[in-house]
Model the fold of this input.
Amino acid sequence: MVILSLLILNKAGGLIFQRDFNEGLKKLSSNDYLVLAGTFHGVHAITSRISPVRNSGGGLEVLESDRFRMQCFQTLTGTKFLIFAEPNQPNIDVVVKRVYELYADYVMKNPFYQIEMPIRCEAFERNLVAYIKPK
Amino acid sequence: MSATKAARVGEDVWKTRIDKVNAELVTLTYGSIVAQLCRDFEGDYLEVNKQLEKMGYNIGLRLIEDFLAKTNMGKCANFRETAETIAKVGFKVFLNITPTVANWTTDNKQFSLIFEENPLADFVELPDDGRAQNELWYSNMLCGVLRGTLEMVQMQVDAHFASDILRGNEVTEMRVTLVRIIDDELPPGED
Done:
């Protein structure tokens, strides 16, 4: 499994987590990651309004390119998980679900994590790495 | 989603995806929290109710993500569906009980949850000081949990107990009212 990078956006479009797992994407400055998150949040909001398909108000879900495939999963609470993977990576939705579970466990259930704030939970990262990049 | 489907989902998730914990540990932990609050606020039961609600609210804000991640639930189409989901999936998954949904108002914005059993209140007798029986809502944390979880999925509700077997009432009944759907275009604090 080759997952390149994971971004988590809070419901206001603020970047609360970013981590690269494999080489393949250009490194950005931390400010640029914030801009990327904010921009995506805006684009997502627009796509959810102008979707030509009836009753599909979910907004942009997948972005494919020669170099990577980006999948967005938005929870019912408005949090977004963006996963960048290799273009041919299958079953990203399974990965996203599992990442969401890890987030529910190691971020939301950590009593000292402040909701909507940047995630600094060591156990979360440890479990993420163990799942995405098992040794 | 129909009531029967909700029941099936709740049963299934509870069986396959939930780590179980000894029920008495939960009952005793909850009991010591309530008793400690009663001591801290020197028997000001109205304040204790408030604190329990607030604690529940903070739990709810977090618990919703676990609920969604474990159950893979989609959006509810209306408030009736929400009520069934709370009763048959939410309470089932976290407390292994399924309160009955009843007493809808005609505008479909208010319903009751009737608790035939309540693991939080096993072994409990309210203090015999002449006030607790009239003032303390022992399980008030549950009201806060509902308010917190639903707020995270864009529903502002009011939840309060209307009666409690602990007080000598016939049934334990929680009243839930949909105040409004929170418009998520502009999250609070993002002007």
Observations:
- Chain A has three helices and five strands.
- The first strand of chain A starts at residue 3 and ends at 9.
- The mean pLDDT of chain A is 91.
- The two ends of chain A are 12 Å apart (CA to CA).
